[in-house]
Amino acid sequence: MNRIDQLFQNKQKDILSIYFPAGYPKLEDTLPTLQLLQDKGVDLVEIGIPFSDPLADGPVIQSAAKQALDNGMSLQLLFNQLKDVRKSITIPLILMGYWNTVYKFGVDAFLTECQNVGIDGVILPDLPLEEYQEEYKEKFEAAGVHNVLLVTPQTTDKRLTIIEKAASGFLYMVSTAATTGGALQASKEREAYFKKIAGLDIPSLIGFGIHDKTSFQHAASFSNGAIIGTAFIKALEKGNAAEFLESLQ
Amino acid sequence: MKIKVCGLKYSKNIKELLQLPIDYAGFIFYPKSPRYVGDEFDTEIPALFPKNTRKVGVFVNEELDVLLATGEKYKLNAMQLHGGESAEYCQKVKEAGFEVIKAFQMNDNFQFESLEEYENICDFFLFDTKTENYGGSGRKFNWKLLENYKGSIPFFLSGGIGAQDAEQIKQLSHDKFYALDLNSGFELQPAKKNANQLEIFLNKLELNTMNKDKYAVDERGYYGEFGGAYIPELLRKNVDELQENYLKILASEQFKKDYARLLDNYVGRPTPLTKAGNLSKRYGTNIYLKREDLTHTGAHKINNTIGQILLAKYMGKKRIIAETGAGQHGVATATVCALFGLECVVYMGALDVKRQAPNVARMKMLGAKVVPAISGNQTLKDATNEAIRDWIANPESFYLIGSVVGPHPYPDLVTRLQSIISEEIREQLAKETGNPNPNYVIACVGGGSNAAGAFYHYLNEKDVNLVAVEASGLGVDSGETAATITIGDIGFIHGSKTMLMQDEDGQITEPYSISAGLDYPGVGPLHAHLAVSGRAQFLSATDEEALNAAKVLAESEGIIPALESSHALAILEKMQFKKDDVVVVNLSGRGDKDMETYMKHFA
Ligand SMILES: Cc1ncc(COP(=O)(O)O)c(C=O)c1O
Questions:
Q1: What is the predicted pLDDT for the residue at B207?
Q2: Which residue of B225, B375, B378, B501 to mutate against A (max A Cβ within 10 Å)?
Q3: Does the CB of B230 have a partner CB in chain A at under 8 Å?
Q4: pTM for the whole thing?
Q5: Phi and psi of B332, rounded to 5°?
Q6: What is the pLDDT of residues B24-33, one digit of tens each?
Q7: pLDDT for residue B209
């Protein structure tokens, strides 16, 4: 069974997912960081594939991605680093990146590598749902790789019905109209939106703007859990990643 | 295969046909025909068809002056001569500026040698079934006879073609077979066509993919395989809102009126088409310059910003976001925002802010906020990323993009707004030379908006060679270049599937050109399609060649071109033209903004 499905079967509350870019802050940090995350009880990890033009990301993730690229990170190198990851890491792993990198790598080759190393899902924010369903869905399903879809406060009800039908794994619930790295502000409309998504048949995690224990608990109270990216990257940068993870407990 | 539908008459009936891929619409001006349009035929009726449908008048042994007057009155493009007209008669019709389609009646005794004297005169032949009354019999002739036609002129196949003939037509393999002429086989009564039956038949011929305007965007924003809207869900609603509104608004009377008025009395259109006498002599041909440099703010960019600001206004937007490289689009946006009293935020790569100080000052004086983009390499690509991020965070704002790039509908929107360029060229050339079509249209390509505008009305005119010139910087193989089509491959940038410059890992690489306006690692999806399909030729010019071309134009014609436009001019040096060729170069902008660079090189 896909590890993402297993996770949501075993745990419905307070799921903690962490995002970090591969090859950051040092090229060889990908595996040690994964180990740390698993040791500190993180439920799910999103590994960022660094890209030169990350449209949906704010300044912190952009500059982390740039540093990773300057370090020499690439998608092929990431797969090489992850070759034996399943010997030690058992939590579900997701690759998050932009479509150009995957397309250029070759979709078939990409999925084969995902299968080989044990990747459970991908988040490709700029691959449109229609194109995915027409051209790639069957391949992803055959490879056992979930394509995790995003919903936002702007997503119309009509589109939400379509996304719900197409979703696999879980829904990535974007908290707010912003790129990554903003601060989450509580509001009536936002809570209504969270509740609407939580009412769907598929599990959901809230991301964008979650940065500490308080915002995590707030978000997790409306969903199955939440995703932290920017705040963790800042901790990596400062060298206090372990403390940061402990502070979330 | 082209489609001609002949024997049209009624406006209501014609409106039912407008969705079909009809290339030629035939109107019969022969009084004895049951499909004769009549003595009081309304001149508005042929005009119901779009521009790219050719209007054909069908005549049988008509007096020449009656025929020419009719052609003028109904703005016909082509004359189908269906009687015993002589070669000399055809010649006169041709000289009056009409395409000539000469019809011949086929039977087993037809002598194909008799066509020879028409070969050098007519544009097309039309082979019809021989009857007593010049066609219209509803019968087919023996198509095997076509094997005896060895001439060089393409032909229309006519005579009794009906719904049952689709398969046989698909089998036809004559290399001069050009078009099908459909008439009585698809009628409810004489001159009243059966739109349903026609549609089914044309679908059977698979013309919808083969023949429908191949260079127009489809419903999902693709030109062939390029385009689309590769955007995060975060932008979906913004982009959907624009997709749903832009065509409606562009087609509204109010928009058309406002846009035309502003182009006329604010932008300064139409811009002249200048015959460049000295340049023509230098290259031994006939060179015309389309003078976009004479618009307000000094480049074609304003055609687009005027249109988009109206769109923003009708959509109730109050805040405008834009990206800019050299600052030309930024200035054009700041200008229209000032005119309409809207808030304006322009993203500009931090490096460009330093390089293009005069344009930064202009934007500020016009009341815009200029935000330096400090991500990535701090140039146009990064400014575009920042503008899109702003739009994500501010979905109520309007993103006013500066070229034919970005997610659908931007490439189509900007192309339509820039198409005024070729619309004017057509009219001006027709007046000047009697023929709206030149032999060549040459334009520089950064994102591709001035080229898209200059090409637009010629995309389906096969006799017009379209030449796009990219900036190759220090040379295409130097690693310091912006020649996207020449060295790039398929990828995704700023929401569009197109050609782009990237490394093996799919990281988008930084372009280089002396001209900041051509310094973009992608290209509009229309151009990727024109390149891959071979419809346009993509060439490139180096920094050096562009600088030289600027000097040549300044000294020979008294015009200082923008560095971008100088790349288009530079290609004149590398191409071979015939003495009688008509060559149009789109002079996209003036050189004021580039004086510092010019001074450095020519000091
Ligand atoms: C004068 C001029 N020409 C051409 C361009 C290139 O843009 P496009 O390819 O969209 O016409 C620019 C861009 O700034 C420009 O200022």
A1: 63
A2: B375
A3: yes
A4: 0.78
A5: -65, -35
A6: 999 999 999 9
A7: 44
Q: How many CA atoms lie within 13 A of B378 on its CB side?
A: 10
The CB of B447 under 6 Å from ligand 1? The reply is yes
Instruction: Provide the CB-side half-sphere exposure for B440 (13 A, CA).
Output: 28
What does the domain layout of chain A look like in residue ranges? 3-247
B301 is catalytic: yes
Q: Which of A104, A130, A150 sits opposite B232 (nearest CB)?
A: A150
For residue B67, the one-letter residue type is: L
Query: Cα separation of A9 and A6, whole Å?
Result: 5
Decide if A128 and B389 are in contact by the 8 Å CB cutoff: no
Reported as a single tens digit per residue, the pLDDT across A24-47 is: 999 999 999 999 999 999 999 999
Instruction: Report CB contact under 8 Å: B393, A98.
Output: no
Counting from 1 in the atom list of ligand 1, the atom nearest the Cα of B414 is 10
**CATH number belonging to domain A3-247:** 3.20.20.70
Residues A5-17: pLDDT tens digits?
999 999 999 999 9
Which top CATH class is B233-247+298-413?
alpha beta
**CATH code for the part of the protein at B2-208:** 3.20.20.70
pLDDT digits (tens, 9 = 90+) for A43-52: 999 999 999 9
| C-alpha distance from residue B35 to each of A27, B151, B183 (Å) | 78, 31, 10
Distance CA(B236)–CA(A153), nearest Å, equals 11
- The CATH code belonging to domain B266-296+421-602 is 3.40.50.1100
Which residues are CB-neighbours of A42 under 8 A, at least 6 positions away?
A16, A17, A18, A91, A245
* B301, B313, B381, B593: the active-site residue: B301
| Pairing label, strands B398-399, B440-444 | unpaired
Q: In DSSP terms, which residues pair with B319 in a beta bridge?
A: B343
DSSP string, B183-208: -GGGEEETTEE-HHHHHHHHHHTTHH
Return the minimum-mean-pLDDT range out of A234-238, A239-243, B280-284, B324-328. B324-328
pLDDT score recorded for residue B564:
97
In which residue ranges of chain B is CATH 3.40.50.1100 found?
233-247+298-413, 266-296+421-602
Contact B55/A at CB under 8 A? no
pLDDT score of B377: 79
Contacts of A21 in chain B (CB under 8 A): none
> Is B206:B27 a contact under the CB 8 Å cutoff?
no
In the prediction, which pLDDT does B50 show? 84
ipTM of the complex: 0.95
Task: Please provide residue B158's backbone torsions phi and psi, each rounded to the nearest 5 degrees.
Answer: -135, 175
Per-residue confidence (pLDDT) for residue B135, from 0 to 100: 67
Partner residue facing B393 (CB), from A55, A101, A178:
A178
B-chain residues near A97 (CB < 8 A): none
What pLDDT does residue B1 have?
Answer: 87
Alpha helices, H only, B205-342: 207-210, 233-251, 253-262, 277-283, 301-314, 328-340
Q: Is B322 touching ligand 1 by the criterion CB < 6 Å?
A: no
φ/ψ of B542, rounded to 5, equals -85, 170
Distance CA A216, CA B479 (A): 47
Among residues A46, A53, A157, A191, the one annotated as catalytic is: A46
The one catalytic residue among A57, A157, A189, A201: A57
pLDDT digits (tens, 9 = 90+) for A122-146: 999 999 999 999 899 999 999 999 9
Positions of chain B with pLDDT under 70: 135-136, 207-212
- Is any atom of ligand 1 closer than 6 Å to the C-beta of B448? yes
pLDDT for position B554 = 98
Q: Tokens 């802010």 label which residue? A: B353
| A135 is a catalytic site residue | no
Which member of A59, A128, A159 has the closest CB to residue B375?
A59
Closest-CA residue, ligand 1 atom 12, reads B517
